[in-house]
Amino acid sequence: MRRMSSPMIAPSILSADFARLGAEIDAVGGPEGADWVHVDVMDNHFVPNLTLGLPVVQSLLTATTIPLDCHLMIDEPGRWAPPYAEAGAHNVTFHAEATDDPVAVAKDIRAAGGKAGLAIKPGTAFEPYIEVLKSFDTLLVMSVEPGFGGQSFIADVLDKARAARKLVDSDELKLLVEIDGGINADTIEQAAAAGVDCFVAGSAVYNAADPAEAVRKLRAQAAATPRV
Ligand code: DX5
Ligand code: ZN
């Protein structure tokens, strides 16, 4: 099936140099550069790793015009997620596994001016969230266990991307299907074929000699892959 829009690439700054984040974001900007910059927020509770939080995101928002795609791998998203939207993050994604009331959190994010995203870990089923996803703008399908960059792609999760794509194409859901974890030149075509709209790539972009070129190449690869 023909895709309606160009595939989106969201480089994850988890693999960037944290001492030079502004410059690292500039390195993926420019014509045909990053559509979103993916910012991984980890609290060392929901995942066994600690990264950055709201003050850093607030600074990044003053340093770039590229929309920030904040992926919150944290407990208590009801408390912590809406302030990212208030600060001006474009997309605020939290984990389905971290809350009993994802719809309420989505409403608060939207009320604060952000787009709401729901992330599901590799072992979390998609079907129970179909109704819930009517309140969301993005579904983030995790293709690694959240917590670290540079892990291997888990292809089994593509069934969830395919199922979501089907519901979007039949107008039962209206959202972007995003995938995160292990996306690189060897794996992006499988994900594109499954109907993913937006591809997060950390190590594949920031370990490349030319990160902007890596973004363009990944997008071109996805765009050249027909959906099946
Ligand atoms: C992992 C993060 C990812 C990570 C992806 O928990 O959510 O965004 O940066 O890194 P790569 O692309 O290297 O798998
Ligand atoms: Zn992420």
TrEMBL record:
Gene3D superfamilies per the UniProt record, alphabetical: Aldolase class I
Cofactors required: Mn(2+); a divalent metal cation; Zn(2+); Co(2+)
Residues involved in a divalent metal cation binding: H38, D40, H71, D180
MF terms in GO: D-ribulose-phosphate 3-epimerase activity; metal ion binding
Top-rank lineage group of the source organism: Bacteria
Keyword terms: Carbohydrate metabolism, Cobalt, Isomerase, Manganese, Metal-binding, Zinc
Binding-site residues for substrate, renumbered to this chain: S12, H71, G147, F148, G149, G150, D180, G181, G182, G202, S203
Any GO BP annotation: pentose catabolic process
UniProt remark on cofactor binding: Binds 1 divalent metal cation per subunit.
Entries under InterPro entries matching the protein: Aldolase_TIM, Ribul_P_3_epim, Ribul_P_3_epim-like, RibuloseP-bd_barrel
Gene Ontology CC, one term: cytoplasm
Pathway: Carbohydrate degradation
Annotated active site: D40 (proton acceptor), D180 (proton donor)
Enzyme Commission number(s) from the entry: 5.1.3.1
Catalytically driven reaction(s): D-ribulose 5-phosphate = D-xylulose 5-phosphate
Record bears the keyword Transit peptide: no
UniProt keyword Phosphoprotein present: no
Physiological role: Catalyzes the reversible epimerization of D-ribulose 5-phosphate to D-xylulose 5-phosphate.
Listed NCBIfam families: PRK05581.1-4, rpe
HAMAP family named among the record's database cross-references: RPE
PANTHER family xref list: RIBULOSE-5-PHOSPHATE-3-EPIMERASE
Protein name in UniProt: Ribulose-phosphate 3-epimerase
Source organism (scientific name): Tsukamurella paurometabola (strain ATCC 8368 / DSM 20162 / CCUG 35730 / CIP 100753 / JCM 10117 / KCTC 9821 / NBRC 16120 / NCIMB 702349 / NCTC 13040) (Corynebacterium paurometabolum)
Gene: rpe
